[in-house]
From TrEMBL, chain A:
GO terms for cellular component: cytoplasm. It catalyses: L-histidyl-[protein] + phosphoenolpyruvate = N(pros)-phospho-L-histidyl-[protein] + pyruvate. This is Phosphoenolpyruvate-protein phosphotransferase. GO terms for molecular function: kinase activity; metal ion binding; phosphoenolpyruvate-protein phosphotransferase activity. General (non sugar-specific) component of the phosphoenolpyruvate-dependent sugar phosphotransferase system (sugar PTS). This major carbohydrate active-transport system catalyzes the phosphorylation of incoming sugar substrates concomitantly with their translocation across the cell membrane. Enzyme I transfers the phosphoryl group from phosphoenolpyruvate (PEP) to the phosphoryl carrier protein (HPr). Its EC number is 2.7.3.9. The active site is at residues 190, 502.
Automatic annotation (TrEMBL), chain B:
It is found in: Cytoplasm. Belongs to the HPr family. SUPFAM superfamilies: HPr-like (SSF55594). Residues 1-88 form the HPr domain. The keyword Ubl conjugation does not apply. Keywords: Cytoplasm, Phosphoprotein, Phosphotransferase system, Sugar transport, Transport. The lineage of its organism: Bacteria, Bacillati, Bacillota, Bacilli, Lactobacillales. General (non sugar-specific) component of the phosphoenolpyruvate-dependent sugar phosphotransferase system (sugar PTS). This major carbohydrate active-transport system catalyzes the phosphorylation of incoming sugar substrates concomitantly with their translocation across the cell membrane. The phosphoryl group from phosphoenolpyruvate (PEP) is transferred to the phosphoryl carrier protein HPr by enzyme I. Phospho-HPr then transfers it to the PTS EIIA domain. P-Ser-HPr interacts with the catabolite control protein A (CcpA), forming a complex that binds to DNA at the catabolite response elements cre, operator sites preceding a large number of catabolite-regulated genes. Thus, P-Ser-HPr is a corepressor in carbon catabolite repression (CCR), a mechanism that allows bacteria to coordinate and optimize the utilization of available carbon sources. P-Ser-HPr also plays a role in inducer exclusion, in which it probably interacts with several non-PTS permeases and inhibits their transport activity. This is Phosphocarrier protein HPr. It holds the Pfam family PTS-HPr.
Length: 573, 88
């Protein structure tokens, strides 16, 4: 038995066998071959097996995840069925007397080069990813190396990965992937956020060598404490099975709070909303009793797509969300692309400091066509429910005014065409320290402010939240952060502007008492945190929490002191 | 040998979906079928070939079929062009 530590990223405990999701070694040498017939038959065999595999994966994804996720595999099969592609590989084998691996790679690279050079056509450029992927698959069969396909998982596993991409998780079959362990990222990395929305227990920032976990090893993932236990003893396994039962009992207890209002013991009503990114998350939000959607991450629509999503496809998603929320407020954040969320089809140049670079509203204002398409889709959807829009990464009031002008312009154009448009509130995310400091000036312009703590904390502490070596600086309870948050909330209330929060901190059981004391109006969090937060807030007296909040911002100098005050206040109440 | 010319009126040109359908249609016939655009010519049964041409809006393309079922092939292709909204 070996125990490792990591960061607890998604609640729950899983026990299953390890499934390593790693990049295989596909290197090979160029060889001169006399027996071309043999190379031809190797090539055809590898292609046939690849096609069979792809058909299985395609059918599985179609059945389990839907037509959209399965399309990519259909494209892969089409490439392997292309007579021209095959003929070129065969000709290369014959005329240059080379091995099948080399011929395949040369022809495939040739196509990738042509497609990449078609600068005016993003869809076709994206096809080069497909060619690369499918080439890897055929190569793996030529070399006899096993590719790891998340979609081929057919039994209960804990996925072990360096990092997970959205396309990896899109292929997960939820009933089989029981847990996730990754050595990248913190609680706010994409792997972590996605595992929470899929309600899969996860530990990220694994502090060991992933190579110590072998395929098939029994692994316990404790997403509550961040512990990962490899090859547990029977006693240890027993202990964890009991913990799983406790966790399940607690979850079903909390279910009683689903339809109750969130009311503190002295009658205050903060709104508990959910952060979501997809329509699947929406279901989880409703099941967990969300009183609204405080953050819809629209960039997931862009990341799930192989080219820019059309106005129509966006409109359909936005409309479904507001309709399903049936009059409850939904705040859509316009695309927060860039930073750690790069889109291959946009071909944004690589930056040394992506988190300080070209992302979110900066990109939207610079490429207004993409922005306008999204705004039109949102405007049209607003006729079907309670819809608000917020802009991410706003640093200056001028950026907000600029974005608002574009919004007004699109609104006017739709109205002139006779298109129905609802009453939309416009707000900003406060995550850049400059906007937080200047919050009072923003309150004159916006309908609401939503504090995005994930980025705000990393910018205030000057520490990359995905970098394990500095992750100790990611301190939501640091008094510097609390003072800044209080400053923003106070500025909002002085000008009758509602103050919301949509970072991870809003669902943090130790931060909630302080934030209730500061008078935060809406807490938006992972759906799975809503019920326990509601149970917590019902126990709190907001007047006592005001005292707690004041104490933390005036008397504490470290996170530890803040936590001490929180524990004291909770014990007393 | 049969030859026909088409003016592509679709805003997105020969995009992924119509390209796939054109290739599927062409693949049903025995004739050799080529698509010519801006002096480049590709096999219409090759999806990668068709996409590598990057045919955009208001392009003029020529499709040639050569073989026993050349006429039927071009009729079917014209039909697909129309039903996919590539031509008027």
């Amino acid at each position: 038995m070996t125990m490792f530590k990591g960061i607890a990223a998604s609640d729950g405990i899983a026990i299953a066998s390890a499934f390593r999701l790693t990049d295989p070694n596909l290197s090979f040498d160029k060889k001169t071959v006399d027996d071309s017939d043999h190379e031809m038959s190797r090539l055809h065999r590898a292609i046939d097996i690849s096609k069979q595999e792809l058909r299985t994966i395609q059918q599985r994804t179609l059945k389990d995840l839907g037509i959209h996720e399965s399309e990519v595999f259909k494209a892969h099969i089409a490439i392997l069925s292309d007579p021209e592609f095959l003929k070129r590989i065969e000709n290369t084998i014959l005329s240059q007397r080379v091995n099948a691996e080399y011929a395949l790679k040369t022809v495939s690279d040739g196509y990738v080069k042509i497609f990449n050079s078609m600068t005016d056509n993003d869809y076709i450029k994206q096809r080069s990813t497909d060619i690369n992927d499918v080439t890897k698959r055929v190569l793996s069969h030529l070399l006899g190396v096993k590719l790891t396909d998340p979609a081929l998982i057919d039994h209960q596993v804990v996925v072990i990965a360096h990092d997970l991409t959205p396309s990896d998780t899109a292929q997960f079959v939820p009933n089989y992937v029981k847990g996730i362990v990754s050595d990248m990222g913190g609680r706010t990395s994409h792997s972590a956020i996605m595992s929470r929305s899929m309600e899969i227990p996860a530990v990220v920032g694994f502090q060991g060598d992933l190579a110590d976990i072998h395929n098939g090893d029994e692994v316990i993932v404790d997403g509550l404490t961040g512990n990962v236990i490899v090859r547990p003893t029977p006693e240890e396994k027993h202990r964890y099975q009991a913990k799983i039962r406790d966790f399940q009992a607690r979850t079903s207890q909390l279910a009683a709070f689903k339809d109750e209002a969130t009311t503190s013991s002295d009658g205050k009503h903060p709104i508990l909303a959910a952060n979501i990114g997809t329509l699947d998350d929406l279901q989880a939000a409703i099941e967990n009793g969300a009183e609204g959607i405080g953050l819809f991450r629209t960039e997931f629509i862009y990341m799930d797509s192989e080219s820019l999503p059309t106005e129509e496809s966006q409109f359909n998603i936005y409309k479904t969300v507001v309709q399903k929320m049936a009059g409850k407020p939904v705040i859509f954040r316009t695309a927060d692309i860039g930073g750690d969320k790069d889109l291959p089809y946009l071909h944004t140049p690589h930056e040394a400091n992506p988190f300080l670079g070209y992302r979110a509203i900066r990109m939207s204002l610079d490429q207004p066509d993409i922005f306008r398409t999204q705004l039109r889709a949102l405007l049209r959807a607003s006729a079907y429910g309670n819809l608000s829009i917020m802009f991410p990464m706003i640093a200056t009031t001028i950026e907000f005014q600029h974005a608002k002008r574009i919004f007004e312009d699109e609104r006017q154009k739709l109205l002139e065409k006779g298109v129905a448009v609802g009453d939309i509130k416009l707000g900003i995310m406060v995550e850049v320290p400059a906007a937080a400091i200047l919050a009072d000036q923003f309150t004159n312009l916006v309908d609401f402010i939503s504090i995005g703590t994930n980025d705000l904390i990393q910018y205030v502490m000057a520490a990359d939240r995905g970098n394990r070596r500095v992750s100790y600086l990611y301190q939501p309870y640091n008094p510097a952060i609390l003072r800044l948050i209080k400053h923003v909330i106070d500025a909002c209330h002085e000008n009758q502007t509602p103050a919301y929060m949509c970072g991870e901190m809003a669902g943090d059981q130790k931060a909630i008492p302080i934030l209730v004391g500061m008078g935060l109006n809406e807490f938006s969090m992972s759906a799975t945190s809503i019920l326990k937060s509601r149970a917590l807030i019902k126990e709190l007296d907001s007047r006592e929490m005001v005292t707690l909040a004041n104490k933390t911002v005036s008397m504490a100098s470290t996170s530890q002191e803040v936590l001490k005050y929180v524990h004291q206040a909770l014990d007393e109440s | 040998m049969e030859k026909r010319q088409y003016n592509i009126t679709a805003e997105t040109g020969i995009h992924a979906r119509p390209a796939t359908l054109l290739v599927q249609t062409a693949s049903k016939f025995n004739s050799d079928i080529t698509l010519e655009y801006q002096e480049k010519s590709v096999n219409l049964k090759s999806i990668m070939g068709v996409m590598s041409l990057g045919v955009g809006q208001s392009a003029s393309v020529t499709i040639t079929a050569d073989g026993e079922d050349e006429k039927e092939a071009l009729d079917a292709i014209s039909e697909t062009m129309k039903s996919e909204g590539l031509t008027d």
